[in-house]
Design a protein that fits this description.
Blueprint (H helix, E strand, L loop, with lengths): L1 H22 L3 E6 L4 E4 L1 H6 L11 H6 L9 H8 L3 E8 L5 E13 L6 E10 L1 H54 L7 H24 L8 E3 L1 H16 L3 E6 L6 E4 L1 H18 L4 E12 L1 H6 L6 E10 L6 H5 L18 H11 L3 E7 L3 E11 L19 E5 L3 H13 L3 E5 L2 H9 L5 E5 L1 E2 L2 E2 H11 L4 E6 L7 E2 L2 E2 L5 E3 L4 H12 L4
Parallel strand pairs: 7-9, 13-14, 13-15, 15-18, 18-21
Antiparallel strand pairs: 1-2, 1-5, 3-4, 4-5, 6-8, 8-12, 9-10, 10-12, 11-12, 16-17, 19-20
């Protein structure tokens, strides 16, 4: 009876081991010393179904579709050293395509009677989900670091632009005044014109810095992107030349976007110039619009995006494309791949700043030798289109009384002279305290105030003074608002603002817009 009992016990033990072997949810593979597969569990059969039957094949043939073992093979290391080893390896499917990742542990298979190494036990765990989560976390961390770097550079750029705008207000304003006084035949006329043009170019650069840093003050209106593209078409074609074919694919039934029309034109112009430079021998430029709905999952993977309805503006070229290194620095101010003196490096950083200022986001797709595509997503709005008021012509003056508050001596001197030439009665102050004292004893029609002052800000001053004189008008001026009258550069509704630097003519027209507005 004893042999029969032992036989039954052995059979039960074998069935139990087989059940355990089949029930383990990780892969198990038994190899001999020649890497030949002796046994696998159902998990391995399922993972490598394309290579079945597995038993009898060598592991590198079945699992990695190779004719020899891998250099990093942990099983080879175990057979050589007799010690356990571990490695992460790709899970390959039919055609050698990587379908996931596995953690492979190899353990020495020892004959319990002889103590000799007879093979390897491979224990394999699917780590595809873990690898994807880690890759996603790295990508999000890189996006966050890039966003923080751009924000820091933006703050620096905004501060620099503020100081330069004060200087340029005087340079540009007084140059314009002097040029108007000098006859065209005067020997200094040409020099004054060149000074003024240089100041205007410098002002354009500071505006690009403010756009990048999202501190360029704008007054958004509901816009039809297709209409802006159509209106800009002739200018864009002149920019790129005859050897580049332009195709516009206008999406139907586009909702409006809440943006500044000038900023949309800036985006189109800068991206068009960028595309032209990428196609020195000609090519194709495609401008496309469409409606896109961003869902929660997409927004989770793209930190700058928010769920909702967007209007997508894509500008694509068939040019030289970009490397991953260039793409990593693409929107940084002053970064350029052009030669010295061939570009400021502010074009794409301006685009980035404008898009972010208008609560949108931008994606770039590029491949070297194939081309690039810039896809801009701007939030859709249901607001109706606004009616533009006619712009005053020339340099209209007036006889009203203006309380002018500005802490910069040179800016104050130029602006005072400009106001007096326009016929206004002007009361001047360099601080809030001075302005309060002057206002107490004087009738005032309009407050003309810098936004940021040493002892406060112009908005607070106006709120105080308008309580005593409800009919008081206000026009703010500044080179950098610090979000006092705007949030991320978007002007508060009903606020009148003149960006520094400005000329006497621009000041004159801005004043009349405010003074002639119905109460």
């Amino acid at each position: 009876m004893k042999p029969n009992t032992d036989s039954r016990n052995l059979e039960a033990d074998v069935r139990l081991l087989q059940s355990i072997f089949a029930s383990i949810q990780d892969g198990i593979s038994i190899l001999d010393r020649d890497f030949r597969i002796l046994m696998v569990n159902p998990v391995m059969e399922r993972w490598y179904a394309h290579a079945r039957p597995l038993v009898g094949k060598r592991c590198f043939e079945a699992y990695h579709l190779r004719d020899r073992h891998c250099e990093i093979c942990p099983s080879r290391r175990t057979l050589d050293s007799g010690e356990a080893a571990r490695e992460s390896v790709p899970l390959t499917g039919e055609g050698g395509r990587i379908t996931g990742w596995l953690d492979l542990y190899s353990f020495p298979l020892i004959d319990i009677h002889t103590g000799k190494l007879t093979g390897v036990i491979e224990y394999v765990r699917d780590i595809t989900a873990q690898r994807r989560a880690e890759d996603e976390a790295k990508k999000l961390a890189a996006q966050l670091a890039q966003s923080q770097k751009m924000e820091a550079v933006g703050r620096l750029a905004g501060g620099v632009a503020h100081d330069f705008n004060n200087l340029l207000t005087v340079i540009m304003g007084r140059s314009d005044m002097l040029r108007r006084e000098i006859p065209d035949a005067h020997p200094w006329a040409r020099e004054m014109t060149e000074i003024l043009e240089a100041a205007q170019r410098a002002a354009s650069l500071t505006q690009q810095l403010l756009a990048f840093s999202r501190r360029q003050v704008i007054d958004p209106k509901p816009l039809d992107l297709n209409h802006i593209i159509e209106r800009s078409g002739a200018l864009l074609r002149r920019l790129i030349g005859e050897d580049i074919h332009v195709e516009v694919i206008a999406g139907a039934n586009l909702p409006r976007v809440l943006c500044d029309a000038h900023q949309i034109e800036q985006i189109l112009m800068n991206l068009t110039v960028n595309a032209r430079d990428a196609m020195p021998d000609g090519g194709k430029l495609t401008i496309e619009t469409s409606v896109v709905v961003i869902d929660q999952e997409y927004a989770r993977l793209h930190p700058e995006a928010r769920p909702g309805s967007y209007v997508m503006l894509a500008v694509s070229d068939s040019g030289c494309g970009m490397s991953s290194e260039v793409k990593a620095h693409l929107f940084e101010p002053f970064f350029t791949t052009k030669g010295r003196g061939q570009g400021s490096g502010l074009g794409l950083s301006t685009v980035y700043g404008i898009v972010r200022q208008n609560r949108g986001f931008i994606n770039v797709y590029s491949e070297e030798g194939v081309g690039s595509s810039f896809k801009i997503y701007l939030p859709a709005t249901s607001d109706a289109a606004s009616v533009e008021s006619p712009e005053p012509e020339g340099e209209p003056g007036g006889e009203e009384t203006i309380l002018f508050v500005e802490d910069s001596d040179p800016v104050r001197g130029f602006t005072l002279q400009a106001l007096q030439r326009l016929g206004y009665r002007v009361l001047v102050a360099a601080s809030l305290e001075e302005a309060r004292g002057i206002f107490l004893g004087q009738p005032v029609d309009l407050l003309l105030s810098d936004v940021i002052l040493p002892d406060g800000n112009g908005k607070v001053l106006y709120q105080e003074l308008s309580q005593k004189a409800p009919s008081l008008r206000v026009l703010y001026i500044s080179g950098y608002t610090d979000n006092v009258i705007a949030h991320h550069g978007i002007l508060e509704k009903g606020i009148a603002f003149l960006q520094k630097p400005f000329t006497a003519g621009e000041l004159a027209r801005a004043l009349r817009r405010v003074l002639d507005r119905p109460v």
